[in-house]
Amino acid sequence: MSTLVIADHDLGVLSPATARVVHAVAELGPVEVLVIADDAAAIAQSVAAIAGVTKVLTASGNSVADSAEALLSTLAVRYHYVVASAGSVGKDVMPRLSAKLDLMPVTDVIEILGPNRFVRPIYAGNALQTVTDNQPKHILTIRASAFRPAAGGNNAPIETIDTPVISTAKLIAQHRTESDTPDLATAQIVVGGGVALGSAENFKLIEQLAKKLGAAIGATRAAVDAGYAPNDWQVGQTGKIIAPDLYIAIGISGALQHLAGIQGAKKIIAINSDPEAALVKLADVALIGDLFEIIPQLIAELEKASVHR
Ligand SMILES: Cc1cc2nc3c(=O)[nH]c(=O)nc-3n(C[C@H](O)[C@H](O)[C@H](O)COP(=O)(O)OP(=O)(O)OC[C@H]3O[C@@H](n4cnc5c(N)ncnc54)[C@H](O)[C@@H]3O)c2cc1C
Questions:
Q1: Ligand 1 atom, smallest distance to 237 CA
Q2: Which pLDDT belongs to residue 202?
Q3: Tens digit of each residue's pLDDT (9 = 90 or more) over 224-278
Q4: By residue range, what is the domain housing residue 148?
Q5: How far away, in angstroms, is 193 Cα from ligand 1 center?
Q6: How buried is 180 (Cβ within 10 angstroms: 0-12 exposed, 13-18 middle, 19+ buried)?
Q7: Does the residue 182 lie in any domain?
Q8: Residue 269 · residue 244 · CB < 8 Å
Q9: Is 123 within the bounds of a domain?
Q10: Residues with Cβ within 6 A of ligand 1?
């Protein structure tokens, strides 16, 4: 029962999500990984190093759904599972592939219980559903943040596929956010700020703290809507799903829609002036007080610690 994983990559670099997806599906059988990219060679090398990958396939083209559809539906016959991370490519490609193959996808998988039993969150993460998928083939999207990455050190063979990726979609423009902080969806530490920051200028406090900790930056929808933080920092039901080892939630009340995005966090520290806030009650450690006093002190202490190191 072999598995085909579609690699996630950007600007010629493999996303850390792929190693997590490979780890997630490793117990289901041999794992082959498909890289669709105009210049796939470097990405394929990174994929080949992931433990558990038995073969890397490369195809030239882009992984936009209507371009990749013909290739994927041809390839899918060979595999029992076709899998992608539940990121933008997976959410684009897998529904179209499923429709083409007349299969029901199982999306946002956070645990694999057996060959056809998968756990996924429903109702904005307020309940978990165990799905028994009795279809002959399984189309899955995996929440990469719910799984540890597979180790490196492998040297899987790389094979080029001749079947062309027919590009019907034309890429007109890409608007990118430049950031030197870790990827929010796979970061080990995330510092999140809420609307209590009061302005985009003040939100820089969150950025400074995140930088000191080597953390990714998150925000609530209220902070994003107020224009304090960019849209791609939003965490929650309508934002990114995160599962860091540590989430530091600053001036965040803990609305259900925000909590839906942080359920995978292993430890939570809440900094809030309200001891009754939902996130304070949920947190492993809570600092009750004014964030504008606490955060500069924290940054100063971290600076002192780094000088003495
Ligand atoms: C359909 C839908 C989807 C949504 N999706 C999302 C989503 O994906 N992500 C998301 O985050 N929200 C989402 N929301 C919005 C969500 O309901 C909340 O409105 C939002 O999360 C609240 O953000 P907040 O915690 O920043 O603000 P508030 O709820 O206003 O909380 C501010 C907190 O800051 C504290 N505070 C104030 N001043 C200070 C200070 N000086 N020092 C320390 N603490 C202070 C307060 O005690 C309070 O706890 C969604 C809503 C809907 C309806």
A1: 8
A2: 97
A3: 999 999 999 999 998 988 989 999 999 999 999 999 999 889 999 999 999 999 9
A4: 3-160
A5: 9
A6: exposed
A7: no
A8: no
A9: yes
A10: 194-196, 220-223, 234-239, 251-253, 255, 257-258, 261, 272-274, 277, 290-292
